[in-house]
Amino acid sequence: MFPGVHALSAPERPAVIMAESGRVPTFVELEHHSALFASAIREMVVHRGDGVNIYPQEIENVLALHPKMSDVAVIRAPDPDMGERAKAVVQLRGGLGGSDELATELMAHVCRSIAHHKTPRSVGFVDELHDWQPADLPNGF
Predict the structure, then answer these.
(1) Which GO terms describe its biological process (predicted)?
(2) Could you tell me how many helices (H) and strands (E) the chain has, helices first?
(3) According to the model, what pLDDT value does residue 51 have?
(4) What are phi and psi of 124, to 5 degrees?
(5) In sequence order, what DSSP letters do the residues of 11-35 get, joined into one string?
(6) By the 8 A CB rule, do 75 and 89 touch?
(7) What is the pLDDT at residue 114?
(8) DSSP code of 37?
(9) DSSP E strands: which ranges in the chain?
(10) 75 — phi, psi (to 5°)?
(11) Which parts of the chain register pLDDT below 50?
């Protein structure tokens, strides 16, 4: 393994290798046939069922400008109507706490800068984004 790369495993899925990039981890999944599939969270494309592709980096760039924001990652999430939707995972500045009101404020901040259909449909708050794992998200996020 290279420095900053950690192997993770779970009995219900193939081995996963997490490479720490200093911001958002990159996950590499080692399939049973030894092929590597790398997907950087911030490079994923959200594919909506209506043919619209949403690029997380575009949303992250807007959210990063919000004065309460310390760090952000936008991820894809399943959506029963559209196939996938964008979710924002954010770390706030100076120990600020997340709330429904702040989530609404952040979504409105994005909506003022880019097309409405690209706005994340939910926001989750984490204490440290660099230590974030998908399993750390609150239920219902």
Answers:
(1) acyl-CoA metabolic process; fatty acid biosynthetic process
(2) 2, 9
(3) 79
(4) -115, 145
(5) TTEEEEEEE--SSS-EEEEE-TT--
(6) yes
(7) 93
(8) E
(9) 5-10, 13-19, 26-30, 36-40, 46-47, 53-54, 69-79, 83-92, 122-125
(10) -125, 165
(11) 1-43, 136, 138-141
Smallest CA-to-CA distance from 83 within 41, 37, 45 is with 45
Helix (H) / strand (E) containing 105: helix 100-111
Q: How far apart are the first and last CA of the chain?
A: 33
Of the candidates 65, 84, 93, 71, the one whose C-alpha atom is nearest the C-alpha of residue 122 is 84
Q: What is the pLDDT of residue 33?
A: 38
Note the pTM of the prediction, 2 decimals.
0.63
The encoded tokens of residue 138 equal 């609150």
Q: Which residue has the tokens 């290798």?
A: 17
CB-based contacts of 37: which residues, under 8 Å, 6+ apart? 28, 29, 31
Residue with tokens 């706005």: 119
Kindly report each contact of residues 36-42 with a partner whose C-beta sits within 8 Å and lies 24 or more positions away, as own/partner.
Answer: 41/73, 41/75, 42/73, 42/74
Q: In the numeric block, which tokens belong to residue 1?
A: 């393994």
Distance CA 75, CA 93 (A): 20
DSSP reduced 3-state for 93: helix
Calpha distance 32→13 (Å, rounded)? 10
